[in-house]
Amino acid sequence: MSLRALAQHQEAIENFDLAIKYKPDFTLAYYSKGFSLSELGQHQEAIKNFDTAIQYNPNDADFYISKGMSLRVLGQHQEAIKNFDTAIRYNPNDAEAYYSKGLSLYELGHHQEAVRNFDTAIRYNPNDAEAYHAKGLSLYELGQYQEAVRNFDTAIRYNPNDAEAYHAKGLSLYELGQYQEAIENYDIAIQYDSTSLDIYINRGVALHELGQYQEAIKNFDIAIKYQPDCALAYVNKGMSLNELGTIKGRLKIMI
């Protein structure tokens, strides 16, 4: 978050506090203050304000969704799901509630149930790239790689600049043994996010599978540049160096 945005949220909170001072039961002021606090990463304080808003207006689905989102960031996924369920009870057509519930279910490892919620979110908002992306991640965890690829493709269609969608598609293609296609997707991902450690490591792994050990090592070296203490990058680089050493040894024997 930029300093300007940070300052604007702080100033907004000061104004919401003044609104509350002059009208202590002003529901919108508590909700809006909670939103600004969540944007600042102060989720525990945000939840307190969402709770106060709910106290004054217990039937507003948006209040429960926002509270659930803060709970999810804090890792309290079961509590988050309870709030998303309450939101759905008050607004059964709210795509955001199903999507957010799906994210918490994903974090809990309930991938089949997560897929069902992402499907419902998509039914109510069929153009939401994030819902297809999230559904693809759950399908990947379920080992349904071909279906995952289809969902990542749809996510990319609605948001062509999403580096993580290309990265995730690449991971699914890798699991299908389509290493060259995986690399092509990692390449696009890097165009949109050139500093992602994971993409370089995974591109290196795919290159290793194709026997392109020198190129694989270059990718592991880039990952190490971005995170010098990344054990995974070193071990993968070591494996590619081992393969190069074996090849050189074979050549010497042949000569």
TrEMBL record:
Q: Which UniProt keywords apply?
A: Repeat, TPR repeat
SUPFAM superfamilies reported in the protein's UniProt record: TPR-like
Pfam families with a match to the protein in the record: TPR_1 (PF00515), TPR_11 (PF13414), TPR_16 (PF13432)
Sorted alphabetically, which SMART domains does this protein's record hold?
TPR (SM00028)
Q: Where does the record place its TPR repeats? A: 27-60, 61-94, 95-128, 129-162, 163-196, 197-230
Q: Which Gene3D superfamilies match?
A: Tetratricopeptide repeat domain
InterPro entries in the record, alphabetically?
TPR-like_helical_dom_sf, TPR_rpt, Ycf3/AcsC/BcsC/TPR_MFPF
| PROSITE patterns named in the record | TPR, TPR_REGION
Presence of the UniProt keyword Repeat in the record: yes
Please identify the protein, giving its name as recorded. Type III secretion low calcium response chaperone LcrH/SycD
The organism is Orientia tsutsugamushi str. Gilliam
The record lists the lineage as:
Bacteria, Pseudomonadati, Pseudomonadota, Alphaproteobacteria, Rickettsiales
